[in-house]
Structures are given as C-alpha cells and as structure tokens.
TrEMBL record:
Required co-factors: heme
Pfam families named in the record: Sdh_cyt
Function according to Swiss-Prot or TrEMBL: Membrane-anchoring subunit of succinate dehydrogenase (SDH).
Keyword set includes Heme: yes
Family note: Belongs to the cytochrome b560 family.
Cross-referenced PANTHER family: SUCCINATE DEHYDROGENASE CYTOCHROME B560 SUBUNIT (PTHR10978), SUCCINATE DEHYDROGENASE CYTOCHROME B560 SUBUNIT, MITOCHONDRIAL (PTHR10978:SF5)
Cofactor notes: The heme is bound between the two transmembrane subunits.
Residues binding heme: H84
This protein's name: Succinate dehydrogenase cytochrome b556 subunit
A GO CC annotation given for this chain: membrane
Record GO biological process: tricarboxylic acid cycle
InterPro entries found in the cross-reference section: SQR/QFR_C/D, Succ_DH_cyt_bsu_CS, Succ_DH_cytb556, SuccDH_FuR_B_TM-su
Species for this entry: Sulfitobacter delicatus
Gene Ontology MF term list: electron transfer activity; metal ion binding
Length: 127
C-alpha cells in the first residue's frame, strides 16, 4: 500500500542543502571532456579533408585553426585530453579495488585536475 504520509517528506535533496562532491563533479567533467574530444576530432578531420581538397581551402581551414580562437580551442582540447586521460587512470586504479575511500578518491580527483593543467602547460612548452 502507498505511504499516506508521502506529501510531508522531501522527494530529493534540494539545491540549497545539497553540496556537490568533488568526485561527482570530476565524473561529470570526465563525460564533458569525452564529448568535447569528439568535436576536436571533427576539427582535425576537417583540417585533413581541407588538405586533401585544395590549397585554397586548406589555407582557409588552417587560418581558422591557427588563429587566436583556434589556438584557444585546441589548447582547451589538450587540457580536456589530459584530464580525460588522468581520469581514466583514476578509474583503472578504482577498478583494482584501491583508493575507494572518500579522502583518497578526493585526492585522486584533485590530482587529476591539477595534473591535467600541469601536463597541458608542459606539453605547450615542449611543443
């Protein structure tokens, strides 16, 4: 039988009392970066198709991708690639049954965030 006192209970946590955890935010960010890398892949395919089509079309596409906006998009894509890679390593660690307690999970999340920024800067410096 249905609970007759159902109207007096909250059905889910309200936004004013719910604090997002770092692990949930990094999980959402992993999904976002995965989808963003698909868009980056399409940009790279566009660049290769332009190279195969004609010199004029390649100059146009290359101009877009090497402009300040293209540099920004590709730098953010690199950041997303590094973050997604480190988050994948974090999940591989979790798949072994290690570091599943909340303090270690949060440390791994912060390591993925900080590591992705550091590796992005190092990649830009090296390249």
């Amino acid at each position: 039988m249905a609970d007759v006192n159902r109207g007096n209970r909250p059905l889910s946590p309200h936004l004013t009392i719910y604090r997002p955890q770092l692990t949930s935010m990094t999980s959402i960010l992993t999904r976002i970066t995965g989808n963003a890398m698909l868009i980056t892949a399409l940009l790279i395919v566009w660049w290769f198709l332009a190279a195969a089509t004609s010199a004029e079309y390649f100059d146009t596409v290359n101009g877009v991708l090497t402009s300040w906006f293209g540099d920004l998009v590709l730098t953010l894509s690199l950041l997303g690639l590094w973050y997604h890679t480190l988050a994948g390593v974090r999940h591989l660690i979790w798949d072994t049954g290690r570091m599943l307690d909340v303090p270690m999970a949060e440390k791994l999340g912060m390591a993925a965030l900080i590591g992705s920024v550091v590796l992005t800067v190092l990649t830009i410096i090296i390249i």
